[in-house]
Write a structure and sequence with these properties.
- The protein has 301 residues and is of the alpha/beta class.
- It contains ten helices and twelve strands.
- It has helices at residues 33-42, 56-61, 63-84, 117-136, 161-171, 190-202, 222-230, 244-251, 260-266, 274-289, and strands at residues 9-11, 25-27, 47-49, 87-89, 92-93, 139-145, 147-149, 174-177, 185-189, 212-214, 218-220, 237-240.
- The strands form four sheets. Strands 3, 4, 5, 6 and 10 form a five-stranded parallel β-sheet that branches.
- β5 (92-93), α4 and β6 form a beta-alpha-beta unit.
- The longest helix is centred in the N-terminal third of the chain and has 22 residues, at 63-84.
- The radius of gyration is 21 Å and the shape is globular.
- The N and C termini lie far apart (53 Å).
- This is L-threonine 3-dehydrogenase, mitochondrial.
Length: 301
Amino acid sequence: MYGKDSVILSDICKRPSGFEHLSPFCYVNILDKSSIEEAVVNNNIDTLIHFSALLSAVGENNVPLAISVNGRGVENVLEVSKAHNLKLFIPSTIGAFGPTTTRDGTPDLTIQRPRTIYGVTKVYAELLGEYYHEKYGVDFRSLRFPGIISTVEPGGGTTDYAIKIYYDALLNGKHICYLKPDTELPMMYDTDCMTSVVQMLHTPSENLSLRTYNVTGFSFTPEQIAESIRKRIPTFQIEYNICPIRQKIADSWPRSLDDSTARRDWAWKPEYDLEATTEIMLELLTAKLLPPKNEPKLATM
């Protein structure tokens, strides 16, 4: 959309072999403000999209690192954005809500008392971003995402079963789920997720009545996604081995989100429902995981 040289990717490791097409690419350590600032100044950056974070289950296993990455990283990008007049997008999450939040049709403005360090640091990011917007005029924007479904391998989030189940369906024909069969959570397909970010970043600042919005696609349970897969792979099986930590986290999150404010302010509308997501996931993962076998060669006489 913006031209090949207009988006610069960054990480704290070298660009992996085979991904040379991901260019331009630079090193950035989110915990080192000068590292961020150097990348911004040297590349004339005008917008920061800040994805660095330890997700829910991973964060519970390393709380000090989660506080550092999810907290200090946010502080650093806000300070750099203030100093260089940048537009800043920081994603938030349904993990920013907690067990005392209304779980059905959860609105944008409601009680937020999360019980994970991931959720606590995301509330901090939301509030600190809004503070920098009010006090310093930083063009801070955030979206509270549900679980995101894509072909990228799971990264340690509680909702990541909704990715692994497709991998397991194709590779093993069976998935062992760590959540109860009736655990309903909001989700969104990857393309809708990217669309929501691009649309929000394009929206004029004066059209935004909030700085942090809910966005969502659809809600389902493990049993419902399994049934969607069985429509295409009739032999697929799902078993349950409940993880108490992940189940407790899931039970503290909304079952569905109200994103009517985003729909009103910047015409947000998802395209993918559960059936469309299952269709595209199985299609893409089949190509990724199950390359076609070589056709037999015909001998000519």
